[in-house]
Amino acid sequence: MPSHPVPPPSAPAATLGTGNQPSPDWAAIRRPHPRPVTALVEGLMLVVSLTAIAGLLLIFVFVGREALPVLTGSHGHTLPAVAAEGGGTHPDAGVDPLAWRHLLLPRAWEGYPAPSYVWQPVSPIPKYNLVPLVAGSLKVTLVALALAVPFALASAIYVSRFAPPLLRTWIKPAIEWIASVPSVVIGVIAAGALASALQAAFGYTHRLNAFVAGIALGLATIPLVFSLAEEAISHVPEDYTRGAVALGASPWQTTLGIVLPAARPGITAAVMLGFGRCLGETLIVFLASGNAAVLSAGPFDPTRTLTATIAAELGETVVGGPHYQMLFVLGSLLLLLTLLTNGAAQQVLRRLRRTQETSP
Amino acid sequence: MTGTALFLRRSCRSGCRPPGAGVVSTALATAAILIMAVLLLGYIVWMGASQLTPRFLLGGRPEDMFQPGRAGILPMVLGTAARVMVMTLFVMPVGVVTAVYLAEYARPSSLLTRFIRAAVFNLAGVPSIVFGLFGVGFFISFLGNGLDHLTGSETPHFGRPALLWASLTLAVMTLPVVIVATEESLRALAPGTREASFALGATRLQTVMRVVLPNALPGILTAAILAVSRAAGEVAPILFTGAAYYLQETPGSLTDQFMDLAYHVFILATQSPDVERTTPILFGSVLVLLLLTSGLHLAAGLLRSRIRLRPAGGIP
């Protein structure tokens, strides 16, 4: 940065380099008066480096921009006049389906006996209740994490603590390979062979449902949780193990009682990032979940998620119309949820790094 | 790490009881994951292998896409190749420069550096379908329509799904992959590499251009392969930004739409006119897509392990 003509007082030896390499902080050493060309090149580099920030901001702005009219109630869409059967005015005429209370609260729409949460964007009176979709996303995510977390953690423990080195060099790449399988491929297998096998095993009615999608999504999420948890466990200082073993603890007791608690922040972050990944996954749930936007708690019921709704419906909407804007509302919601999860995971990791640096 | 494991096993050998239920259950869980992976791969190979004929791989007219025996995936593979190449052209310069800035120039503690790192981390967590929405909202609606407005064209020329917009969307999506992998390779250079260059009187820029980047070239290549491997299998970001269900013509310009292998798999799985008959085509396409992404993944892994194994002392 050319704006610092003098080298900062805390030059080389005082500020040690990043991480554990004890090399001086070369970035801090500056020529007192940089040559114009150098200053120009460095300035350009800095500008290019801001692309990541710009990208993230643009995503916020341009996904949010289409959603904003709905959120502020200034969308200005009017419903086409709907005549009730047999004349007269339709009981739901004049209702603004994009109003907040209809997005979040149940309503006894015409033809529904009781107040219900309905997502039904293509109908004379479109209904855009978010609750079934959010609940669907959470349901599939919970099934996925219920599979992924125990398996990924157990495997991370085995690979980092007990596996012979030779085996470890094969297991890690094999599990990481799963992460490279495109989600559309996993989705196709889930909707085909996996769905049939699970239906035969459990005997439920609907072939495609939240359970099938969750299992497939869980498999896809295992590598992420595994890698992060394995890294967290491996980074626990070896002194902890030596100390525990010296006190007579067995390897398993050491792992369970000493190493895992020490790695807990990293494991927590791994699970949180897994949650975010599940919430944002599209193709697997689109292909395997059955896509019925119905609010239900049953894992074996067809379910529709936020992501699958966008993927299924955006192509059929009128640009700038209420349905189009609602899908951007779903996108904004997804963006917000995943970024909050990520931010929280980042906080946990930062705290972990701080304690690991200060620990003996 | 390795030391711990050896240490634990030694203590067990001298102790010794057979491994307890805890250890056995973690080993079983690992085995279960590996079995699932093998089943996945085995099933796809089993179902798709018979399709891998030269005609299927290297031929095929778009209008035969649902015709067993006549279908071929060449138009789709070409489309996928085009979109990842255009993406690479955009993402690599930006990603490498950012990584160089972060590794060689930025002060680790400065607010700006932390902002850039936070943006990279968060960009990596944005769901792929949101990138699709972003591509529609920013590239097509804003940039595309804006360009149409500027050029005064009546019919939308830029303001519609296109190869360019899909590639740019993917470039934004894979930017974190490139930055993280490149920076890792820059930091992995042998200690003393930079100092040696500085000691010879080279400026920082000369050091970066003549020492750091040439030595990190395998790492940068790894980053590119990882980005391509990730992007090649993605469907959600290109659903609405450029992929086409069916096209008579091969795309000839950046503003054309394109057929795409991953999107073709999606189409075969959801919109096949006759699921029974097109199943072989589906699994053939799935197998090719899987071989493509897994091959790239493997190449990146091998390249990366070669970098790690390289003896210290980096400067050739």
Key descriptive features of the protein:
heterodimer; A: 360 residues; mainly alpha; two-stranded antiparallel sheet; 12 helices; 62% helix; globular; B: 316 residues; 71% helix
Describe the structure.
The complex is a heterodimer of chains A (360) and B (316). With 360 residues, chain A is mainly alpha-helical. Helices cover 62% and strands 1% of the residues of chain A. Chain A contains 12 helices and 2 strands; from the N terminus they run αααββααααααααα. Chain A has helices at residues 36-49, 51-72, 100-104, 131-162, 165-180, 183-202, 210-234, 238-246, 251-280, 283-288, 306-313, 322-358; strands spanning 119-120, 127-128. In chain A, strands 1-2 form a two-stranded antiparallel sheet. In chain A, a hairpin with a 6-residue loop joins strand 1 and strand 2. Chain A is globular. The two termini of chain A are 36 Å apart. With 316 residues, chain B is an all-alpha fold. Chain B is built from 11 helices and no strands. Chain B has helices spanning 2-15, 21-48, 54-58, 74-105, 111-125, 128-151, 163-187, 193-199, 204-232, 261-270, 275-309. Chains A and B meet through helix 1, helix 2, helix 4, helix 5 and helix 6 of A and helix 1, helix 2, helix 4, helix 5 and helix 6 of B.
Q: Which secondary structure elements does this structure contain, and how are they paired or packed?
A:
The complex is a heterodimer of chains A (360) and B (316).
Chain A: H1 36-49, H2 51-72, H3 100-104, E1 119-120, E2 127-128, H4 131-162, H5 165-180, H6 183-202, H7 210-234, H8 238-246, H9 251-280, H10 283-288, H11 306-313, H12 322-358
Antiparallel strand pairs in A: 1-2
Helix pairs in contact in A: 2-12, 4-7, 4-9, 5-7, 6-7, 7-9, 8-9, 9-12, 11-12
Chain B: H1 2-15, H2 21-48, H3 54-58, H4 74-105, H5 111-125, H6 128-151, H7 163-187, H8 193-199, H9 204-232, H10 261-270, H11 275-309
